[in-house]
Amino acid sequence: MISRLSKYKKRMLAKRIFMLYSITIMILINVSAQHIEHLNEDNFEHQVLKFEPVQCSTVSDDDFEYATMVLREVKNAVQNDVKNFCRGDYYNLVNVFKSLNAPIEHVALAFDKFIKSEGSCMYVIQLEKKIRKKFKTTEYAHLLKQYNEKLEQCRDEKSKKAPLNIVDYSNKNGFDLELVTMMNHINEQDKYYRLDKCEGWRAKQRELDRSNQVLIDSIFAIHKTYIGNSMVGEKFSGVMWAVIQHSSLEMMEKYLPIVKEAAHNGNLSVESLKMLIDRFYGLKYGYQFFNTQLGFGFKKADANQITEIKRKFGLL
């Protein structure tokens, strides 16, 4: 009797151990489906692009549907290129990881990427109520502290950026008000979507660039010279160059001699001339001379080519 009872207890104990083991495995599988393995600051963007979450029991249908929708939108926005991630994408990923009940380290990584991204201050200030609500629980206290520090920094920077008074600037320096106003307008258009770099910014910016190029051609037709330091001051000396730099090969080729002259007579920096040379030759021939165009895949010209181009543009 004792022997039979002992065997029965052993069988029951074995069953319980097996059930506990099975449940543990299920939990681990369930949880890992929501996580990205070995996520860190260096591989963050690559891992996000590969991430395909699977719903687990701790995530509601609504939260999972929202998270997968936002993740899909992020992937579409960056066009499968890690270089295209920007402030809006990182902020959206904070919401994705929170909705999926991902480890807090993942949320923290996305948030850190967000506040360190270019132009994040606009979101940091505008989304204050939402961010405070998002991090109101004790587990996110360290992220709320990080946010408060960033918010203070953003507000301080904003207070220091007083808008330029074009009339005063023109009168003080003896510049033509109409010309300065036009260059200021072109400058704002040139930066409008480039500072954002989110949600189809390239297509939107191309339209503004084309408009700027027409304006620069019109202004050049009137003044017959580069619009630089002597006519609009150092603050707007690079505006005409920026429009040319962001234009077509045809426009770059047309204005290269003009930019060369401006760089040699003090109306533009020599560094700007080098950048235009590299952009033009890089796009047309696939190589550059001064290594100013990083991220385009242009090859470095050899020593003889560099000497030849320096001689051609008076840079020896």
Structure, described:
The chain has 316 residues and is mainly alpha-helical. The protein is built from 16 helices and two strands. A two-stranded parallel sheet has the order 1-2. α6 crosses α8, α9 (166-173) crosses α10 (177-191) and α10 runs parallel beside α13 (239-245).
Kindly summarize this structure in a few lines.
About 70% of the residues lie in helices and about 0% in strands. The chain is an all-alpha fold and about 325 residues long.
Structural topology:
Layout (H helix, E strand, L loop, with lengths): L1 H31 L11 H7 L10 H18 L8 H13 L4 H13 L3 H7 L1 H7 L6 H20 L5 H8 L3 H15 L9 H23 L5 H4 L6 H7 L3 H16 L5 H16 L1 E2 L10 E2 L2 H10 L4
Parallel strand pairs: 1-2
- Structure class: mainly alpha
Helix content: 55-70%
From the alpha carbons, calculate the radius of gyration and give it in angstroms: 29 Å
The main pleated sheet reads as: 2 strands, parallel
Spatial strand sequence of the major β-sheet = 1-2
Number of helices in the DSSP assignment: 16
| Mean pLDDT rating | 87
Q: Total number of β-strand segments?
A: 2
Distance between the termini: 104 Å
Order of helices and strands: HHHHHHHHHHHHHHHEEH
Poorly predicted residue ranges: 21-33
Shape type: elongated
Strand content: under 5%
